[in-house]
UniProtKB/TrEMBL annotation:
Domain of life: Bacteria
Gene3D superfamilies: Aspartate Aminotransferase, domain 1, Type I PLP-dependent aspartate aminotransferase-like (Major domain)
Swiss-Prot/TrEMBL keywords: Aminotransferase, Pyridoxal phosphate, Transferase
Known cofactor(s): pyridoxal 5'-phosphate
UniProt cross-references to PANTHER family, sorted A to Z: AMINOTRANSFERASE (PTHR43094), AMINOTRANSFERASE CLASS-III (PTHR43094:SF1)
Family per record: Belongs to the class-III pyridoxal-phosphate-dependent aminotransferase family.
Protein name (record): Aminotransferase class III-fold pyridoxal phosphate-dependent enzyme
GO MF annotations in UniProt: pyridoxal phosphate binding; transaminase activity
Amino acid sequence: MFNDLAALDKRHLIHPVVPWRAHEKRGVTILKSGKGAYVTDADGNTLIDGFSGLWCVNAGYGQQTIVDAVKRQLEEMAYATNYFHYGNENAVRLAARLAELAPGDLNRVFFTLGGSDAIDSAIRMIRYYYNVTGRPAKKHMIALQRGFHGSSSLGSGLTALKNFHDDFDSPAPWQHHIASPYPYRNPVGQDPQAIIAASVQALKDKVAEIGADNVAAIFAEPVQGSGGVLVPPDGWFKAMREAARELDILFVADEVITGFGRTGPMFGSEYDGVVPDMMTIAKGLTSAYQPMGALMMSDALYAAIADSSPEARAIGHGFTYSGHPASAAAGLEAIRLYTEGGLLENGQKIAPRFAGGLQSLYDHPLVGDVRVRGLLAAVELVTDKECKTKPDAGLNISHHLARLSYEKRVIFRAFSDDIAGFAPPLCCSEDDIDIIVSRFREVLDELL
Ligand code: PLP
């Protein structure tokens, strides 16, 4: 039966972000079930998931109360729109709960289906805001090199990964990138204050180059995820936020990965005490039990948009599934598990074990850098620690990492540039964390 599946997959399913022909040859591992931090594939092999699916199953697999909440809603009513003058209780309650939890006055919530359309919504709303408030020249948007902001038509240009641009006619001329803080490989060195100062200066220089009157916003992740888990120095996010305020541009925190306890607090912005103008969330919002994302905005921004819009004109932005009641049910229950259910606290409790475990890998000849914040981490591999030499491209390390990840039964993400990314579920025990680390050490040993 699963041979049939493999053939059908090859024949029909277009997978996200893979080289299509190479992927057909390689095939897929069909995942069948999950419990806690463990998943089992169609051949009956059980792996520990050190990456929470795609950094999204923050609560872990098999959380029965989330399943029950979704089921209850589906039985009662499969869908209730938020269009026209209708609404549904779960969406209202989830918006209110998010407003309660989010930093500062981020009290207004627009629901999406995931992170890409949350970013897309931010871009559209920012344009709309400047147009209706009489500053239509403010169109240019800035993001960080190695940043990731999804793959919608607009957002993929803010994403700064080459394969999201090449042959896609992206980025657009109004999309710009400044250097990533990337402490391990920053040209200014590893001194935190120098890195922060360089980032702030890069933002100021870019705004001066484009003209302050033409710049709308900067988008940044509190920790850059898909760019290789680049943990910035403490205070970096706050300095960038303050610089944006001084430059009179909006600051959008992309918390699609960093939200919901991933880096310790509920939101990554809290780590540095940042209140952004807008925040995008997804993934951990429902712990991936249903698809959902959101764009949150400050009361001030909401009021400016609402009060400046022509009274009789509907603001033309919305999706059929904005605030889907079953997704909102999953969100409410996932958040209950993070808070009253103690998952956030457990994540914080196991974080030192996780950091310590990964840092113990520094004695391995291939480990150049270990970077961790909360339960988000990366290990960067080098062949010469002193010179930080990357392994020869011909060795195709990321391919071997991906293969060994399966062989050693530990899921992590093998980034293309010899970086292994980790984001274990918040429900892990310290023993689970030790298993992830020890199996990863076995992976490294195989590479020698
Ligand atoms: N923003 C960030 C920071 C992300 O990491 C991602 C996805 O990984 C996205 C946006 C896009 O989210 P989605 O894949 O749900 O569209």
